[in-house]
Design brief:
The chain is globular, with a radius of gyration of 15 Å. It contains three helices and ten strands, in the order αββββαβββββαβ. It has one domain (2-174): Protein Transport Mog1p, Chain A (3-Layer(aba) Sandwich). The two termini are 22 Å apart. β8 (131-139) and β9 form a beta hairpin. It has helices spanning 2-11, 81-95, 157-168, and strands at residues 27-30, 37-44, 48-55, 65-72, 100-101, 105-109, 112-121, 131-139, 144-151, 171-174. It is α+β, with helices and mostly antiparallel strands. The strands form two sheets. Strands 2, 3, 4, 5, 6, 7, 8 and 9 form an eight-stranded antiparallel β-sheet that branches. A two-stranded antiparallel ribbon has the order 1-10.
C-alpha cells in the first residue's frame, strides 16, 4: 500500500528535495518492534522520512503486510491530523475505483492531536490485488507523523485487530529518548 498510496503523503510535504540517507530528527513516531518484521526500506532528509517494515522474506515489491512510518517536517501547525487523513482518502478515491473509507476518528497520542481511519481498495490498478490500510496521523510539536498498517488482501477481523494493536502502541519519540520503543536504532 505504501508504494501506491504513500506517494500522496510524500507529495504533501511542500519540500522538493529528494530522499537521502536518514537524518536525525527531533520527533518521530515509534511502536514496539514486531517479531518477524524487518526494515525493507528507509530514507529521509530534514523535510521528511519514511520506514517500511515487512515480514521477513518479503520486500517492498512483494509483501502481504507492511508497516509504514513517516515524518513530514514542520507542517503540524498547517494541517490537522484529521484533515491530512481526509486528503489521503481523496487521493485513494481518485486512484482506486470502488474504494471505501471510514471517516477519520479523532484521538490523542502522547498527549497530541491524532486521527485514525481505514481505507479499502478492492483492486489496486498497478497490482490487480485488493489492499487495505489503517492509518494513524499524529501532530507532533512541529512535525506531522504518520504510521500505517497495510494488507495486500482483504483483511480478516483478526488482521484488523492486529493493526489496531500495532497502531495503539505508537508513541511520539524525541531526540535522546532512550526508553522503549524510542530506543530503536534501525
Amino acid at each position: 500500500m505504501m508504494r501506491f498510496w504513500g506517494k500522496l503523503g510524500l507529495a504533501l510535504t511542500l519540500a522538493s528535495s529528494s530522499l537521502t540517507a536518514q537524518a536525525p530528527t527531533a520527533e518521530r513516531l515509534e511502536g514496539a518492534l514486531l517479531p518477524g518484521y524487518v526494515v525493507a526500506y528507509k530514507a529521509g532528509d530534514q523535510q521528511r522520512s519514511i520506514r517500511e517494515e515487512v515480514p521477513q522474506g518479503e520486500n517492498v515489491q512483494r509483501w502481504s503486510r507492511m508497516i509504514t512510518t513517516q515524518r513530514f517536517a514542520g507542517i503540524a501547525a498547517r494541517i490537522a491530523p484529521a484533515n491530512f487523513a481526509r486528503l489521503m482518502i481523496r487521493g485513494v478515491t481518485g486512484s482506486c475505483l470502488g474504494s471505501t473509507s471510514s471517516p477519520p476518528t479523532e484521538l490523542t497520542v502522547s498527549g497530541r492531536p491524532a486521527a485514525q481511519l481505514r481505507v479499502d481498495c478492492p483492486q489496486v490498478p498497478a497490482t490487480g490485488k485488493p489492499e487495505t490500510f489503517v492509518l494513524l496521523v499524529v501532530a507532533g510539536e512541529q512535525d506531522l507523523l504518520a504510521r500505517q498498517v497495510a494488507f495486500r488482501s482483504v483483511p480478516t477481523e483478526d488482521d484488523l485487530q492486529w493493526a489496531d494493536a500495532v497502531l495503539s502502541g505508537s508513541v511520539i519519540c524525541k531526540s535522546g529518548d532512550m526508553d522503549p520503543p524510542c530506543d530503536r536504532n534501525d
